[in-house]
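Below is one such protein, fold included:
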Amino acid sequence: MTDLPYEGATPEQLQSPLVREFLAVHNMFRTELANMLNFVQELMAGEQELTGAETQTRVQSLIRAGMWYTQTLHMHHNIETSVMFPRLHQDGLETAVIDRLNADHDAIAEMIDKFSEAIQNFAAIEPDVMNNDLRRLAEALRAHLAYEETHVCPLLARYSHWPLPPRPRN
């Protein structure tokens, strides 16, 4: 997790309510992923067979947190890809940047789907495999978030409200 601003951040950009909210959401994803990584590390240092009652309860908590995390991250990326990026493209977000961000979204979606599938079957959970999968996801997500913040936040700072398309009138 990082509390440092994105590369190239200016004090004015960091005062923008939209930039602050965007960074807060990203930091939430970083924090929750770090929490899951720490949990799996603790799990690996303890009971490998996952048979103890306390361990089973803790793994069930990980499953719930993991399911919430994967669903929320999918939703976040879907909104960015389908709604926010097209609007920001109109205001100067480069096609190459959008293409990379969307490719990242696709690659991360595969990783989080793999993690989601792995944690749905309690009996088949393998802590070392889960640890490796989460670490790969963490690396990819951290790099993606940093790149996205560097390119999206300067544009977001120009807005007074979220750059979403107007709702159609009925």
User: Anything to note?
Assistant: The chain has a mean pLDDT of 87. The helical segments are 11-15, 17-45, 53-90, 95-120, 127-156. DSSP finds five helices and no strands in the chain. Residues 53-90 form the longest helix (38 residues).
